[in-house]
């Protein structure tokens, strides 16, 4: 007996339209907001105050980590009061070519009971390993979590 397994694929279309200088505007079908993007200010003719590809790359890892955390926490029935995550992307020339070599994720998680600490640590660890974007890139991703217990958790 042959069992056929169907694998799905999803496409995410993003469009960029050059505006002027080193600035473009990104859009995607079905999304109302647009995002200005530009060469980062560290490079010739770079622009301050506008999202760069390097910011967006780092944001992609960070937002994927968050959405993965939300799903994993739900599956583990982890009760928490607060989640936030700061991400630092490192652009370097360590290999002779510019690349995003490292992303440091600094999630902050506030849980409701001391007894949930080990479960929270496990959820954060699983979230890092299951993040689709992290699994799709060459950059080293380092997670440095902070877990706190709230005395006011509902």
From TrEMBL:
Pfam families: OsmC. InterPro entries: KH_dom-like_a/b (IPR015946), OsmC/Ohr_fam (IPR003718), OsmC/Ohrsf (IPR036102), OsmC_Ohr_Peroxiredoxin (IPR052707). This is Organic hydroperoxide reductase OsmC/OhrA. It comes from Cecembia rubra.
């Amino acid at each position: 007996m042959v069992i056929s397994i169907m694998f799905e694929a999803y496409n995410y279309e993003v469009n960029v339209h050059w505006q002027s200088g080193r600035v473009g505007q990104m859009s995607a079908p079905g999304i109302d907001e647009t995002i200005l993007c530009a060469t980062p200010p560290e490079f010739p003719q770079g622009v301050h105050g506008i999202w760069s590809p390097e910011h967006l790359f780092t944001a992609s890892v960070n937002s994927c980590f968050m959405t993965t955390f939300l799903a994993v926490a739900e599956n583990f029935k982890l009760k928490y009061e607060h989640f936030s995550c700061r991400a630092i992307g490192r652009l370097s020339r360590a290999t002779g070519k510019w690349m995003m070599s490292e992303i440091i994720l600094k999630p902050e998680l506030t849980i409701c009971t001391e007894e949930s600490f080990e479960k929270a640590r496990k959820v954060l660890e699983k979230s890092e390993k299951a993040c689709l974007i992290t699994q799709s890139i060459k950059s080293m991703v380092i997670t440095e979590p902070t877990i706190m217990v709230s005395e006011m958790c509902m």
